[in-house]
Amino acid sequence: MTEIRSTQETVVAINTRHFRNVLGHFPTSVVAITTLDDDQRPHGFIVGTFTSVSLDPPLVSFLVDTSSTTLQRIRETGRFCANALAGNQEHVSRRMASRGGDRFEGVTWQSSALGNPVLDGVVAWVDCAVAQIVEIGDHVLVVGQVHELRVESVRTPLLFFRGGYGDYLASASLVMDQLVGW
Fold first, then answer.
1. Using CB atoms within 10 A of its CB, is residue 57 exposed (0-12), middle (13-18) or buried (19+)?
2. 42 by DSSP, 3-state: which?
3. What pTM was computed for the model?
4. 1-38 pLDDT, tens digit each
């Protein structure tokens, strides 16, 4: 149980399992956050919390558990790349979400201008320098100043919904928009 205080100081007890179950009904994108350490070894993890923050200046953010070892690498390097995984990259997500072992085993990538891993086969990527890190509960909000970004393919993105993976089925309007260049 977690207690949440409202603005009127009413305490509401929220069952943690119920909380996770309900929030699992909000589909999220699957994004691999990557960086290189000082020895040029790649590090990364998966988030479902990547979002845009500001257009001017261009800022993005994600949330990560405070215990993440890759978070420490991002703090040290001051940079990261957000890679939007494609619908056919569930295996990459599972590899990058695993504990221990080499998360980059069998994962091919190229180096960005800032020196971050850009994963092959992704839908799009955003290369950033850390602008701000804020501790919030048991997570950390990392805000990045965008330095470069690119759409790599028109593949559908990998999504996480109700505890499982899937991809976005392109609607006719989405396909038409891409054909006419919207």
1. exposed
2. strand
3. 0.84
4. 555 555 556 667 888 888 878 877 777 899 999 999 98
